């Protein structure tokens, strides 16, 4: 099933996973997939390692989910460090395996691997390549705060609008205040783009970890959130409880504002996502 068809039918709920690198991690993911499948997600997505480090593992996991688990899976794909011929081969394999959904990303080349830059400069070039190889539903990424490499908010919105105009939908990076999402959508609408933009949700379960991730993607960790968590810095259970409460409140505000769906970054664990879904009354 194409994700665009699911979006046309109504609000979606989806989950993101990454390819496991060990037998133990694979067993954890297997449990997670089973625990989240009962929520009847509209689709799930599988990330792609920087520089293509999970190229085959991403492919194999996406194909297996589609084939064996009665779930719709979307493959992430980055163009950084890849030659055009490599990308054509990867996309062609997905087409031949019956995969219908690809998230086309620019990607950040890992400096430590010393890989050369790819032949495609931007995600919009990858969207066009995917379109030329098969009848795919193509998603792209959006940065609500915006992308850290952008010259300005205005230029980020303009580039996002250009690539989204050639894609079917977007999924955002995570954020902590709903206003960032609604400001992004309003800016895109003002630029003439009204494709679905699905907010990405990452509950705060560890203060240090989430702050590092937010810094890498250029997101602000709000001072009010830091103040809320500060008295519980030495109490992981309380940090987790507050993180889930705040993620639930964020999702509720987004749903009230009419978002087309919610996309949860699970980190291959199910418990936090299941708790938020239960709080919101989502799922099967």
Textual characterization of the structure:
Helix 2 (23-37) links the parallel strand 1 (12-17) and strand 2. Helices cover 47% and strands 15% of the residues. It has one domain (3-280): TIM Barrel (Alpha-Beta Barrel). It has helices at 3-9, 23-37, 55-68, 84-96, 123-133, 153-164, 178-190, 207-217, 223-229, 236-256, 271-280, and strands at 12-17, 43-46, 73-78, 101-105, 137-142, 169-174, 197-201, 261-265. It is built from eleven helices and eight strands. The protein is α/β, with parallel strands linked by helices. The radius of gyration is 18 Å and the shape is globular.
Class from helix and strand fractions: alpha/beta
Question: Approximately what portion of the residues adopt beta-strand conformation?
Answer: 15-25%
Low-confidence segments: none
Mean pLDDT: 94
- CATH topology, by name, is TIM Barrel
Work out the helix count: 11
N-to-C series of helices and strands: HEHEHEHEHEHEHEHHHEH
CATH architectural category: Alpha-Beta Barrel
Q: What top-tier CATH class fits best?
A: Alpha Beta
Helical residues, percent: 40-55%
- Which strands sit side by side, in order, in the main sheet? 1-2-3-4-5-6-7-8
For the sheet with most strands, the description reads: 8 strands, parallel, barrel
Shape: globular
Number of strands: 8
Ends distance: 18 Å
List the domain count as a whole number: 1
């Amino acid at each position: 099933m194409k994700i665009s068809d699911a979006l046309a039918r109504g609000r979606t709920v989806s989950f993101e996973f990454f390819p496991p690198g060990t037998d133990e991690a694979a067993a954890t993911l297997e449990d997670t997939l089973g625990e989240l499948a009962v929520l009847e997600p509209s689709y799930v997505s599988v990330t792609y390692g920087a520089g293509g480090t999970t190229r085959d593992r991403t492919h194999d996991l996406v194909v297996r989910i589609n084939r064996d688990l009665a779930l719709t899976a979307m493959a992430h794909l980055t163009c950084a460090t890849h030659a055009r011929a490599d990308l054509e081969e990867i996309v062609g394999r997905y087409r031949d395996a019956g995969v219908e959904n690809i998230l086309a990303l620019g990607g950040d080349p890992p400096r430590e691997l010393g890989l050369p830059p790819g032949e495609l400069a931007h995600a919009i070039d990858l969207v066009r390549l995917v379109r030329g190889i098969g009848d795919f539903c193509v998603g792209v990424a959006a940065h609500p705060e915006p992308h850290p490499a952008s010259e300005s908010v205005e230029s980020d919105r303009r580039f996002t609008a250009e690539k989204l105009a050639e894609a079917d939908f977007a999924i955002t990076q995570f954020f902590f205040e709903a206003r960032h999402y609604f400001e992004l959508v309003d800016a895109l609408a003002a630029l003439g783009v009204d494709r679905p933009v699905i907010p990405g949700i990452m509950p705060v379960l560890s203060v240090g970890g989430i702050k590092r991730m937010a810094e890498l993607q250029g997101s602000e960790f709000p001072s009010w959130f830091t103040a809320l968590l500060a008295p519980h810095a030495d109490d992981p259970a309380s940090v987790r409880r507050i993180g889930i409460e705040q993620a639930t409140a964020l999702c509720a505000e987004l749903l009230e504002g009419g978002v087309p769906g919610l996309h949860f970054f699970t980190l291959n664990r199910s418990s936090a996502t299941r708790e938020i879904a239960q709080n919101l009354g989502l799922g099967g």
